[in-house]
Amino acid sequence: MVKIADLPSFDAADYLDSEEAITTYLNAILEENDDALLAEALGDISKARGIN
């Protein structure tokens, strides 16, 4: 059985490597209509662009 601690960590910013990827990600997040999720997504996008 695989333990959660043994799984690699996931960072969405690692996959936001183009404007198209960022746009697709942001559109999917906006469809959820969740303010907390949007705030986290904006952090992911900032991290992907090197803005901290």
UniProtKB/TrEMBL annotation:
It holds the Pfam family dnstrm_HI1420. This is Putative addiction module antidote protein. It comes from Thiopseudomonas denitrificans.
